[in-house]
Design goal:
The chain is an alpha/beta fold. It folds into 2 domains: 48 residues; 129 residues, Glutaredoxin (3-Layer(aba) Sandwich). Helix content is 50%, strand content 15%. The protein is built from 6 helices and 7 strands. The strands form 2 sheets. Strands 5-4-3-6-7 form a 5-stranded mixed beta sheet, with helices on both faces. Helix 2 links the parallel strand 3 and strand 4. The longest helix has 47 residues. The chain is elongated, with a radius of gyration of 25 Å.
Length: 203
């Protein structure tokens, strides 16, 4: 009886050590996955989602049911708003997107909301709650986010009429002034050849 009673604690301790090893192994795998997602991917994002790079081509069906692609925005300054219905910062930022579109939509600014990291139901609910008037993509938007290098919601990308990214704001927008620089960069008209000659001192 004494031998059996002494063996039982040893077996229990051995099981505990095995469980600890398994737990540490699982933790290591999780940490590795997080590292790859947030560190490795972020380095790719920094290279892709950068002022001066072209915004990627795309072709989807909008929430309205109409086909929509990059061709719809060719020659137009455009703001792409990447959002998620579960994201509180997206809910807080959308009011500034609506204000920007209301004030500049008639003067040539285009906008496209791209729902990511959420179900189409959740994204549609977001659009209904906030009564969004500009076009929205609520299905397959994640593929565009991947091509553009967007990982975080909300992310606001300002693209000029030539399809070039001019400004990127990652995260919540708390005041309109935070996006004025991006807006100014894509709405300003390029100087005409005559203006350039005058600036250069050429008659």
């Amino acid at each position: 009886m004494t031998a059996l009673s002494e063996t039982a604690p040893l077996a229990s301790n051995a099981r505990k050590r095995v469980n600890q090893i398994i737990l540490l192994g699982a933790l290591a795998l999780i940490l590795n996955a997080l590292f790859n997602h947030f560190v490795v991917d972020s380095s790719r994002v920094n290279k892709t989602l950068k002022a001066g790079n072209p915004f990627p081509a795309f072709s989807f069906t909008a929430m309205s049911g109409s086909p929509i692609s990059d061709k719809n925005f060719a020659g137009k300054p455009t703001v792409y708003f990447f959002f998620a219905g579960w994201c509180p910062c997206s809910h807080e930022t959308i009011k500034w997107m609506k204000k920007m579109y209301a004030e500049n939509g008639k003067s040539g600014l285009s906008m496209l909301g791209v729902g990511i990291q959420d179900s189409s139901t959740g994204l549609a609910r977001f659009a209904k709650i906030h009564k969004v008037e500009f076009p929205l993509i609520i299905e397959n938007g994640q593929s565009l986010a991947k091509d553009a290098g967007v990982e975080i919601t909300p992310t606001t990308v300002f693209v000029d009429s030539g399809g070039i990214i001019r400004y990127v704001h990652v995260g919540k927008i708390e005041r309109y002034g935070q996006i004025s620089e991006g807006l100014d960069n894509i709405l300003k008209k390029p100087a005409s050849s005559a203006s350039l000659r005058i600036l250069a001192g050429v008659a």
